[in-house]
Amino acid sequence: MDSAAAAAAAKRVQIEKAHNFMRQYRDPESRELKKLSANQFMDVWAHYDKDGNGYIEGTELDGFLREFVSSANVTDISPEAVTDTMLEELKSCFMEAYDDNQDGKIDIRELAQLLPMEENFLLLFRFDNPLESSVEFMKIWREYDTDNSGYIEADELKNFLRDLLKEAKKINDVSEDKLIEYTDTMLQVFDANKDGRLQLSEMAKLLPVKENFLCRQVFKEGIDGATKLTKEDIEKVFSLYDRDNSGTIENEELKGFLKDLLELVKKDDYDAQDLAAFEETIMRGVGRDKHGKISRKELTMILLTLAKISPDDEQ
Fold this sequence. Notes:
The chain is mainly α. The chain has helices at 3-19, 38-48, 59-70, 84-98, 108-114, 119-123, 134-144, 154-167, 176-190, 200-206, 217-223, 231-241, 252-266, 272-285, 296-306, 311-314; strands at residues 248-250, 293-295. Helix 2 (38-48) packs parallel to helix 9 (176-190) and helix 7 (134-144) packs across helix 13 (252-266). The termini are far apart.
């Protein structure tokens, strides 16, 4: 290709990009989506997550769906050609297929299921066995926060991603340069406050737990004072966190429980310092601030206090 043709092709891509961001990632003949590199996937995510809150939602989602559909057309049609009625039907089908947690918005992991990507990079978004609870999450956190800084820095994140690829028997397919690219991309995606490292809440999005048991409706209602927690509810919580069946919640079990409690209070923005302060407050509240363990009775006290229900009422 001579310089004039190359310049014309570059100009055409710029025009298409300005008109419809997704069109540049489709084959010009077949209109099929090309496999995206880690950096290209990041470009797509950053383009549509305009407010940087970690979700494609509302008008962002409408814009993405309009451009995603119209970019597949052989003729150069405008995204506005997708009518409001067509958009609503499309959104309904799309969300049913890809909105796994049914929250009405698309997160990074759900977008990764939709767009074709490099196989090895895609592996970092797919886990055959999601973590059962935050207890497992805290064990992994302790393993990779090797300097105990309370953050997962770039080198620690790279070690984590390397081990994920090893587990998938794909590490031999990934060069050191490519691993660095993956690490940089994952930092760009999940480092919400852009400080170059992952805090607890950011790592929790990268390595999600199957379910925060305390986010179940009964606990949400209980904390609002609308529903009384039952003995069975509390027993389920205790067995979930007492992973070694020792009769107490301690070490990573305790930190996993506190992390889930913290998510109810701080939502999407908390770090290791928040967790430590929360632990101090909770342990002082049960009157046992030195032994670092929670018994079944103490767990009951904590949950009933949060639910604004007195033990007498519960009994």
